[in-house]
Amino acid sequence: MLNKKSVDDINVKGKRVLVRCDFNVPLKDGKITDENRLVAALPTIKKLIADGGKVILCSHLGKPKGEPKPELSLAPVAVRLSELLGQDVKFAADDNVVGDNAKAAVAEMKDGDVVLLQNTRYRAEETKNGEELSKELASLCDVFVNDAFGTAHRAHCSNVGVTKFVDTAVVGYLMQKEIDFLGNAVNNPERPMVAILGGAKVADKLNVIDNLLEKCDTLIIGGGMAYTFLKAKGYEVGTSLVDDEKIDYCKEMMDKAEKLGKNLYLPVDTTIAKAFPDPIDAEIEVSVVASDAIPADMMGLDIGTETAAKFADAVKSAKTVVWNGPMGVFENPILAKGTIAVAEALAETEATTIIGGGDSAAAVNQLGFGDKMTHISTGGGASLEFLEGKDLPGVVAANDK
Q1: Could you say which residues bind substrate here (predicted)?
Q2: Residue 337 annotated in active site
């Protein structure tokens, strides 16, 4: 899975190139409110334009669930991409994605032209990887480039199905970067390697914990999932989030860490409050107690100060750090301290720092540490499955080198 052909391995001059991008951007009143994903796609698009390809872009946006929804049209994306690229991006407005407009627009293309297709999820068979849409998409192109890591863990028409009907299928720069960083971090890390897992649920990260324990030297558990581990140690955790069905699993993982000689760090103190903040960013009264001294009527909502220092210290000597999931309810300024402390430690280290998409990427960017990280993954679910050691259909489908 880690040795795929990329846009640097092919010649696209005069060829029609279908590029699966991730333009799943937030829209408000028809305006794009965060264009990170558009900017991230530019290097691949510019490379294909410069090489004389006829560049046909496609993506999903939101969840139209197989029917045209005007508010989820990619038309605003075409407008903004035209500005970012400094050339016209022609929008093919077909509710069936590959319709008369798309076919005509592609037929008229000159080398270096760019066309954007309508939201691929306007078609119900997109998410079912149906053969008809896969063939229609393939009929538009000679070469397929997948640059959408965010959907790489799903087998859909526009990232996997289409490759069955196209001879040349490669990855773009964004996909290549994800494969290089996430793939190598898990399979061939520079040591010592520290993995930091947070977020709410143990269930979401079962296989990740298991897989990373075998790969890393130190595993740090914070966030809501830490309380299930603390309960597994026999501690009182009050009204904190706990997954009672996973207590035995947590015991197994602690045993496994011991057998493998790995460091498994849990919070030694925790920030507690009477209840979850409502609304999430509301002022809230908190105190910090030892992790084995949480009162029965209190709830843990962030790691404590001593834990933050201990986790930060563990990062200092690392050569590779992978982080997925915040340390507490980071959306609340009072409960963001643990997440900030970890982000600061990562920002200051010389190690290769990889942020695994989703909430941790949002936290790092919101807190202003984004530019200090080596790599921030563009896919939440996809990066988790990569960290689990799973094969991602969207990556597997590309031609091997």
Answers
A1: 22-24, 37, 60-63, 121, 154
A2: no
Active site residue 231: no
Structure confidence by residue, pLDDT tens digits, 282-300: 999 999 999 999 999 999 9
Over residues 17-27, the mean pLDDT reads 96
Q: Determine whether the annotation assigns residue 325 to a binding site.
A: no
Token digits for 366?
């919101």
37 is catalytic: yes
112 catalytically annotated: no
Residue appearing with tokens 């930060």 = 312
Is the pLDDT at 203 greater than 90? The verdict is: no
120 contact partners, CB below 8 Å, separation of at least 6: 58, 59, 60, 97, 126, 133, 156, 157, 158
Residue 328: HSE in the Cβ half-sphere, 13 Å Cα cutoff: 33
DSSP secondary structure string for all residues of 183-242: IHHHHSPPSSEEEEE-SS-SGGGHHHHHHHHHH-SEEEE-STTHHHHHHHTT---TTS--
Q: To the nearest whole number, what is the mean pLDDT of the chain?
A: 95
121 labeled binding residue: yes
pTM value is 0.87
